What does this fold into?
Amino acid sequence: MILRKSIAGQLLQLFALIIIHASCHTLASAKTVNPGGGELQQQPQLEQQQPIQGLPEPRAYMPDSQNLDFVYHDHEELTRFLRATSARYPNLTALYSIGKSIQGRDLWVMVVSSSPYEHMIGKPDVKYVGNIHGNEPVGREMLLHLIQYFVTSYSSDQYVKWLLDNTRIHILPTMNPDGYAVSKEGTCDGGQGRYNARGFDLNRNFPDYFKQNNKRGQPETDAVKDWISKIQFVLSGSLHGGALVASYPYDNTPNSSPLGAVFQTYSAAPSLTPDDDVLKHLSLVYARNHAKMSRGVACKSATPAFENGITNGAAWYPLTGGMQDYNYVWYGCMEITLEISCCKFPPAYELKKYWEDNQLSLIKFLAEAHRGVQGFVFDPAGMPIERASIKIKGRDVGFQTTKYGEFWRILLPGYYKAEVFAEGFAPREVEFVIVEQHPTLLNVTLQSSKPYLVASSVASSVTTAKTRRVNDKLQLAAD
It folds into this structure.
């Protein structure tokens, strides 16, 4: 946690904030639209965003004991907190459910943003998912405290204000409320409450890139799959317990052994993605901002230590049907699995310390959505092209544009070439450069792959112009 500064230090910080505020850049000509419909009426233009490193660190969290204590909240208490927060901060939050668990509990998602109910063109969507294993609830509580931190700090913390002004943050505190309901506080190991009400491990229930997953789909995973198919998430974190490490894709490998899912001491080779550099970087951002994770200390003598507090998922132990691989392969969303507590369900009196350890990491990780390249894909008339496919050359996992033609891709500094495809348009390659300070803005216009349509359009325009000239002459004659 960040220590309180002296009065002189506060004055210096205030002076720095004034300078930062004066130089702040925002989205220009951005049009607010309803996610459910509406047309883009003007071509969006983006200005250079304010460099992330120019902002002060998020301030130390000051809990509001009247709203959220450091205790575990059952589903009814969780629901009341989310509803009360949404009612109290209607300009910063929006609450919705993506579905229900087997036992009928809502899978609540809280949006925290300065545009919570609407999509602001050019603003990326990011997410956190907690409690996918019901007996690992530390992440569930951390996400509730993160929501409260955001809404109570927006007017006083310049870093939080920048993040919420430029990002739409979706937080699903619990993906497995049924499993949580039968879990026991103080249980560090074991499987009671890990699974959903039908006995399925939800983090083994997604389609898999390497192997056929024959496990029957569950309502909770089906709800998440539907959710991420509708929103183009750029970055995601899944919060777990039982270790202290940031684990990145791939979780599976063509040569994985089923023993790896049972015995976590199983030694396997890494299974690396084409974006291994980016995923390692994202993991390091979380680990290095965490109070302990980057030290790589093993939770128990019999468990492995992790260099710098990060690991490739398959190198740790392979698994089939994991959520982070599904996000990455199917939708191009960079998801990291965040193991944030050695004990799966530690006693509640330890939660405040867990918050202090994770607060900065949770915030800084989301800000990484603004690293890399972002922009729009247009047709020759300047209209956005929905679901245009984009690949960074040399990186086989692609991603698509939103209904407004937007795209984002997290990349480290360097030279890149993007390959852009869309049905009915000629493919195009575009070179660009990524620098450290701010995202590269890249707009791409695709030409029609059917020349006769273009010729027809040109001929129509010429005919229209001739007709107008004739009408103008007739009007002059009449005058």
